[in-house]
Amino acid sequence: MYVAVKGGEAAIANAHRLLADRRRGDRALPAIGIGQIVAQLGLAVDRVMAEASLYDRSLAALAIRQARGDLIEAIFILRAYRTTLPRFGYSRPIDTGAMLVERRVSATYKDLPGGQLLGPTFDYTHRLLDPSLLGDEAVEALPEREDTGEPLMRVSDILAGEGLVEEDGGLPEGHVAGDLTREPLEFPMPRDLRLQALARGDEGFLLALGYSTQRGYARSHPFVGEIRIGMVEVELELPELGFAVPLGRIQVTECQMVNQFKGSAKTPPQFTRGYGLVFGQGERKAMAMSLVDRALRAEEFGEDVVAPAQDEEFVISHSDNVQATGFVEHLKLPHYVDFQAELDLVRRMRRDYEAAQNTDLPEAAE
Amino acid sequence: MTSTGKAGDRRDDTGDDVRRRAMGLLAVASRAELEAAWNGLAGKPAARMVRGPETGLVMVRGRIGGGGAAFNLGEATVSRASIRLEDGTIGHAHALGGDRETVRLAAIFDGLFQQPAHRADVERLLDVVAARLRREDEAQARQTAATRVDFFTMVRGED
């Protein structure tokens, strides 16, 4: 229960001034620029874009600076900002097959068309703190190699050639992709809506759920069929022109997880798939998303729903960190009247309890 | 001058493709490229704003599994502008991001692109943008290619 109580305006205003001061920090140091955040803390920026569900690097960097580096706070700020903008329309679906790839690896095929392209990865680093980054040492010149020009065939298409993997996920004819920014969540939900929710879901939450499936809670024998990161074109259909115009390119990370499936009465044994797609460079998130996407398809494959990662309502209702932080953090707001009511109740129960103890005591003594 | 058969021709499929390519390049032209082209124009055309420039959102869609049914991935900021040149030609521009001045200029160039007298000026700008994109993409492809793994197999055991 909330009761309007006046007061605290001066304290709040001063607290916000204090926040601005602490955010700026030591004035002897130069202020950090938005361009620097975009260029040098790019993966933090990408995470904020992905979980705010808004692709705009400058705004995400601004939100990070404003939030003093608290990424969930930054995501919250960016989510709030998006509600102030008009919606121009829906893009045509992006074509990840036509991606300008900067990283592409497969854990299932060593020699696949186009090869294994490591790109700018943390993999195979030793995770040792690098003292050279304390300063601003010049970065080595980049090695280059002639691009083979070989098209980067999707691993799912290679497997599909043998008929051993399910197709890209279809939905019934005439199905219009749901949009959870426009409609309230309803369960059970079709896979398109789940993917929208997972794409903006909290990386830590999805990582933990994905991990749980590997540890035996809804085991699905996953292999990374392919991860690819790169730029894809976004196109918007313009009714006034009668054709789709390119708006520019965005960076996305895609993960195709391939999972063993022993088959059922209706379906022969084959590989099934989980899909992950996120804004920016977000490999861990895309992998976790694909594991959870596959786990949430349990009923579709007639698998027993026994683990948290398979429970659609549990996963989707708790994956959004803006909702989660709102509800958890509201607990610190004044609940004085609620608490007074509970205090009164506990006092009364305690009196009753003590009275009962006192009447019991003489009997016990007898 | 736009009501000739020629203007009509531009609305056929090939015309759409030509305009589409131009609009795509104008969408990724930098502010500096657009301003340089604007400053290089002999006579500055008068352009009236018809819409915007304004920033809004486009919901970006993906496909399940990469090629399956569409789903909504998340939104992106997009700026757009529409202008009318003196002869009534309408120019449109849409570009990712929040830079409204850039799309205002891009819309003017889209309008000029439709005017035979100015198309060559716009083509010069498009060439600059296309060349930069090609350079950037090729450099990135070569840098990525340098990270391609060359496997070699150790032969062991008896032959």
Content-based structural category of chain A:
alpha+beta
Question: Unreliable stretches of chain B, pLDDT < 50, 5 or more residues?
Answer: 1-13
Q: In percent, how much strand structure appears in the residues of chain A?
A: 15-25%
Which assembly state applies to the chains in this document? heterodimer
Radius of gyration of chain A: 26 Å
Average pLDDT reading of chain B:
89
Mean pLDDT score of chain A, rounded? 92
Low-pLDDT stretches of chain A? none
Give an account of the 3D structure:
The complex is a heterodimer of chains A (366) and B (159). Chain A has two domains: 10-82, no CATH class; 96-120 and 148-168 and 184-321, no CATH class. Chain A is 39% helix and 16% strand. Chain A is built from twelve helices and six strands. Chain A has a four-stranded antiparallel beta sheet. In chain A, helix 2 (34-40) packs across helix 4, helix 4 (57-66) packs across helix 5 and helix 8 crosses helix 9 (283-295). The longest helix of chain A is centred in the C-terminal third of the chain and has 30 residues, at 336-365. Chain A is globular and about 85 Å long. The model of chain A has no long low-confidence stretch (mean pLDDT 92). Classes of the chains: A alpha+beta (366), B alpha+beta (159). Chains A and B meet through strand 1, strand 2, strand 3, helix 7 and strand 4 of A and helix 2, strand 1, strand 2, strand 3 and helix 5 of B.
